[in-house]
Design goal:
This protein is of the alpha+beta class and 512 residues long. The chain has three domains: 146 residues, D-Maltodextrin-Binding Protein, domain 2 (3-Layer(aba) Sandwich), CATH 3.40.190; 107 residues, Dipeptide-binding Protein, Domain 1 (Dipeptide-binding Protein, domain 1, Alpha-Beta Complex); 206 residues, Dipeptide-binding Protein, Domain 3 (Dipeptide-binding Protein, domain 3), CATH 3.10.105. 28% of the residues lie in helices and 21% in strands. The protein has a seven-stranded mixed beta sheet with strand order 9-10-11-2-12-21-13, with helices on both faces. Strands 1-5-6-8-7 form a five-stranded antiparallel beta sheet, with helices on one face. A three-stranded antiparallel beta sheet has the order 18-14-19, with helices on one face. Strand 5 and strand 6 form a beta hairpin. Helix 8 packs antiparallel against helix 10 and helix 14 runs antiparallel to helix 15. The radius of gyration is 23 Å and the shape is globular.
Length: 512
């Protein structure tokens, strides 16, 4: 189509592009001799009673894994986080506003219902309904409308141009459910596995979908997904053989895992970070000078060296990592500077103030980060009371509920998604409650632009605004460490997150 943007990629081209992307990043492709059969248990760091089978409400890495097991998206990420064909065989546009989508033939839901364009229309537009409670409602505001034009054809109209729609639709929140589905006591998707048991906060059991639309996949017969929030307990479960795969291995446990002849580690550089959240709805933590004081008190080099033992990339109080194509390298690196922090604290009139700060093993490395910050704060006259709370219930009970808390933030495929989901004023996951009209306006401009240089310039300014004014301190981007049984094959890093960007289930196989 002359003058059109098209996502019309053959299966061979997709696999070739994935292999090329992996080769460029120094990752070897998995062996091409997978076997069918086998059952594994997987332990994740994040689990809660709010766990859900509704993709729209996914809130943590375990939800994302579960949803990728049970559902499929219109597109899916390759090794370079580009949106490639999934349920959508083809996506075409001439103006990045009006998109024509053709679905694959022969795809069926787990209950036998054929996939149709009406299912896709329902799945996309339900995110706009406030009753849904979608975590990506602010992203879906771009969907001006969607309508079926045939059994397998539909058109999606955006409120403005966005050339990144294929990458957006590859996210786990946008996987496809059947038309009219409101009951999520069980799951009915088109994904590689079928839900057999689901107990929020406890476990999920899935079995192989024999009618999966990708011939030959998946390979495992059964997967049980559980949560073990304590890292030492999680590593012990792996080394004892109770589970065959875990995420969030701490750098301190690397030697233990590598000392085992039966186990291995996979490293994934990522844009994931643990952040200090300073709420904008509190008069102390919303003070601009208090925010700067806390940022200058953050000892990034110490955090990288002592907490992550080098398995991290230094951050600069904004969410785009240095290896991202939209990274703004012109923002000076903020140093650890206690005297400057003291100046801003005095300017804010907050010396000798006592503040509680909440930490938990649920927020990766936050217990130690909080202790380091407490020690530095005491030297400049700020009294931080570190409250260590259990991992169970942390996200529902404490995260963002106090003036100072720590959180984990997952990487996103694009800068647009990162800023829209976590920093736009109306975003459900705007953790600080930050409201900056200029930021919101520039974000809309970046999204609408099809000029790459223009987009990068705008995203660069957005990074500067967060760096300077937002109540978030981002010390480092975490290199993810997954531990696994050597008999588990087919793994390779995808920088979206651990467990192959949460999509491991359809790729891995058991060699035993």
């Amino acid at each position: 189509m002359t003058g059109a943007t098209s996502m019309d990629v053959s299966r061979r081209a997709l696999l070739g592009g994935l292999a090329a992307g992996l080769a460029a990043s120094g990752v070897r492709a998995a062996p091409s001799t997978p076997r069918h059969g086998g059952s594994i248990r997987v332990a994740s760091i994040a689990t809660s009673t709010a766990d859900t089978l509704d993709p729209a409400k996914g809130n943590n890495s375990t939800d994302y894994m579960r949803h990728y097991m049970l559902y499929s998206g219109l597109t899916q990420y390759d090794g370079q986080l580009r949106g490639r064909p999934g349920l959508a065989e083809r996506m075409e546009t001439r103006d990045n506003v009006n998109w024509s989508i053709r679905l694959r033939r022969g795809v069926h839901f787990h209950n036998g219902k054929p996939l149709s364009a009406e299912d896709v229309v329902w799945s996309l537009m339900r995110h706009r309904d406030p009753k849904t409670g979608s975590k990506v409602a602010n992203i879906a505001e771009q969907f001006a409308g969607a309508r079926a034009t045939g059994p397998l054809d539909l058109q999606v109209r955006l409120t403005g141009p966005n050339p990144e729609l294929p990458a957006i639709l590859a996210g786990s929140h946008f996987v496809i459910i059947e038309n009219g589905r409101r009951d999520f006591s069980t799951a009915n998707g088109t994904g590689p596995y079928i839900c057999r048991a689901f107990a929020p906060g406890i476990r999920t059991v899935v079995t192989r979908n024999p009618n999966y639309w990708k011939p030959g996949r998946p390979y495992l017969d059964r997967i049980e997904l559980i949560g073990i929030s304590d890292e030492i307990s999680r590593v012990n479960a792996l080394l004892s053989g109770d589970v065959q795969m875990i995420n969030a291995v701490s750098p301190g446990s690397v030697k233990r895992v590598r000392a085992s002849a039966a186990h291995q580690l996979m490293e994934t550089p990522s844009g994931i970070y643990t952040d200090l959240i300073m709420r904008a709805d509190n008069p102390v933590t919303s003070n601009p000078d208090f925010i700067l004081a806390m940022k200058y008190l953050t000892d990034r080099e110490l955090i990288k060296r002592a907490l992550f033992r080098g398995y991290a990339t230094i951050g600069n109080d904004q969410p785009i990592p240095p290896f991202h194509p939209m990274y703004n390298s012109n923002i000076p690196q903020r140093p650890f500077d206690p005297e400057r922090a003291r100046f801003h604290l005095r300017k804010a009139g907050l010396q000798n103030v006592r503040l509680p700060i909440y930490v938990s093993q649920a927020a990766n490395a936050s217990v130690d980060m909080g202790s380091i910050l407490q020690e530095h704060a005491a030297q400049i006259g700020l009294k931080l009371a570190v409250n260590r709370v259990p991992g169970d219930g942390y996200w529902a009970t404490h995260w963002m509920k106090h003036p100072l808390t720590y959180g984990n933030n997952n990487a996103r495929a694009t800068a647009d998604l990162t800023f829209t989901l976590n920093y736009q004023s109306q975003a459900a996951m705007n953790t600080t409650g930050w409201h900056n009209p200029r930021f919101d306006r520039l974000l809309a401009e970046a999204r609408a632009s099809t000029d790459i240089a223009r987009r990068k310039a705008i995203f660069g300014e957005l990074q500067w605004l967060v760096h300077e004014y937002c109540g978030v301190s981002i010390p480092a981007f975490i290199t993810l460490l997954d531990g696994y049984d050597r008999r588990l094959k087919g793994l390779f890093p995808i920088p979206l997150g651990g467990f192959m960007g949460y999509t491991f289930a359809e790729y891995v196989w058991w060699d035993a």
